[in-house]
Design brief:
This protein is of the alpha/beta class. The chain has one domain. The protein contains eight helices and seven strands. Strands 1-7-6-2-5-3-4 form a seven-stranded mixed beta sheet, with helices on both faces. Helix 4 links the parallel strand 3 and strand 4. Helix 1 packs antiparallel against helix 2, helix 1 packs across helix 7 and helix 2 crosses helix 3. The radius of gyration is 18 Å and the shape is globular.
């Protein structure tokens, strides 16, 4: 009986994943030509943001936003649980991202991230840090919100890890008008299911999320922005962003 139940669950999970993929493809087929039309006439396109939010909803997310996300001239610093974070931050704040180079190779997810102008960096390339910082400064000067995940990875117990200060070097010296906005992403009871731990292969994790039954509530807490000019260096910026997320 247990084997029969397991077989039925597997079948339902496969059908659920197939249905969600079809919905994502349908949304993409609508968004791509509209995105192209916006770009053709020289307008900033809202369609990557709308599409990525739609993907999150198709995958089961009921999204709640607390606070006011800044829409430009901001570095968003968020806690990190999963590639799902990308869908949520892009979908609610229109952000582009700084992400590990490995994300670019993930099926579907890497392509979606690229569509949203993600900056892929080699986190272990110490010799390339200067180039990474220059690329981030250039992206911030472009105006579109830029999100970073300063933890760099997810802890085994899902706790908030120390923030690595390297990416905050892009704000030293400060860029006039650019602020830092900390964001806490709270998946509630679904955190264990959605967490992408280091030992979890990317394709296996994506399959698990696609097959996951039911819906889940996720809350994005957009906290009060602060001016990087008020802090002496990248370590102080990283510490302040983390402290605000922890306190929330």
């Amino acid at each position: 009986m247990a084997a029969v139940a397991s077989s039925k669950d597997d079948s339902k999970g496969g059908l659920r994943a197939a249905g969600r993929l079809l919905c994502i493809v349908a949304a993409l087929l609508i968004a791509l030509p509209l995105h192209g039309a916006w770009r053709l006439v020289g307008r900033a396109s809202p369609w990557p943001r709308r599409f990525l939010r739609r993907v999150a909803v198709v995958l089961g997310a009921d999204i709640r936003v607390v606070g006011q996300p800044l829409r430009r001239d901001v570095m968003i610093a968020a806690n990190h649980l999963s590639w799902f974070d990308i869908l949520l931050l892009a979908g609610t704040a229109g952000t582009r991202f700084v992400a590990k180079a490995e994300v670019a190779a993930l099926p579907l997810v890497g392509w979606l991230a690229g569509l949203n102008r993600t900056l892929f960096v080699e986190r272990g390339d110490r010799l390339g840090v200067g180039d990474q910082v220059a690329a981030i400064r250039e992206a911030l000067a472009d105006g579109q919100p830029l999100a970073v995940f300063p933890e760099g990875t997810t802890g085994d117990d899902l706790s908030l890890l120390p923030f690595k200060p390297a990416l905050f070097a892009a704000l030293v010296p400060p860029i006039p008008g650019v602020r830092v906005q900390p964001v806490r992403i709270d998946y509630g009871a679904a955190a264990d299911d959605l967490a992408w731990l280091g030992s979890d292969p990317g394709d296996a994790h994506a399959k698990r999320v696609l097959r996951r039954p039911g819906r889940f509530a996720v809350t994005l807490h957009y906290l009060t922005p602060f001016d990087p000019a008020d802090y002496p260096d990248r370590k102080a910026l990283a510490a302040e962003a983390r402290a605000r997320i922890a306190a929330s």
